[in-house]
Specification:
By secondary structure, the protein is mainly alpha-helical. It is about 45% helix and about 5% strand. Helix 7 (about 160-165) links the parallel strand 2 (about 125-130) and strand 3 (about 170-175). Helix 2 runs antiparallel to helix 3 (about 45-55). The chain is globular and about 45 Å long. The two termini are about 30 Å apart.
Length: about 200
């Protein structure tokens, strides 16, 4: 059965993850596979394994990450450090144009202080990497183009301003097709992004 084959494949991958910290970039695909399995005979296995992965700080995301922060399963600093560690281990993917890891660590400390004082906002402590199309004040924004290679905005986009005002944390700016004109992520001035599953495939976006 397809479900059994999928379960076996995920089981193999997750066994490797537990031993060597499965790369962050695979998490969403695995989570979606779990969701697909929960209506089948493997529901118990899928739910228990998904819960194990989501309990790790490097996989804290919405909405589970917020719940974990509120329950003090981990701190914003732990989440940010775990994401940075994964990003640094996956540099060959060429996902980032600009990294703001030092800024993120400072923001994480403020988020932890906000949780401690009872002043946490809606997205407090959740790390976010932004596609390099959105202007970020004092952080280089290129749209994947040589033309904007040294452009540092003096203003913040409405989209990102709304995210930061609710406590989210900026990890950096993500690579993309030049001016978003494409769907394969191969036309960026800064080089194409590698597909984390198979480098012979395009990642999309």
């Amino acid at each position: 059965m397809r479900v059994t084959k999928t379960k076996n494949e995920l089981n193999r991958r997750l066994s490797n993850e537990i031993r060597r910290q499965y790369p962050l970039v695979y998490t969403q695909a695995i989570t979606e596979s779990f969701d697909a399995l929960t209506s089948h005979e493997n529901a118990s296995w899928a739910l228990s394994t998904k819960a194990h992965i989501e309990a790790l700080p490097q996989y804290a995301a919405l909405p589970g990450g917020l719940e974990g922060l509120k329950a003090k399963k981990y701190t914003a600093t732990e989440i940010v450090d775990a994401h940075i560690k994964q990003a640094e281990a996956q540099k060959s993917l060429n996902s980032y144009i600009t990294e703001t890891f030092d800024i993120a660590r400072g923001q994480a400390k403020q988020s932890d202080a906000n949780y401690a004082s009872g002043n946490a906002r809606k997205l407090e402590g959740i790390p976010v990497a932004v596609k390099d199309l959105f202007c970020t004040k004092n952080v280089k924004t290129t749209a994947g183009s040589k033309i904007l290679n040294n452009f540092v905005p003096t203003y913040e986009s409405t989209v990102t301003e709304n995210i930061w005002s609710e406590g989210a944390i900026l990890l950096g700016k993500l690579n993309c097709d030049e001016f978003a004109m494409g769907s394969s992520n191969e036309t960026s001035f800064f080089g194409n992004v590698q597909n984390p599953i198979d480098i012979n495939l395009v990642p999309g976006g």
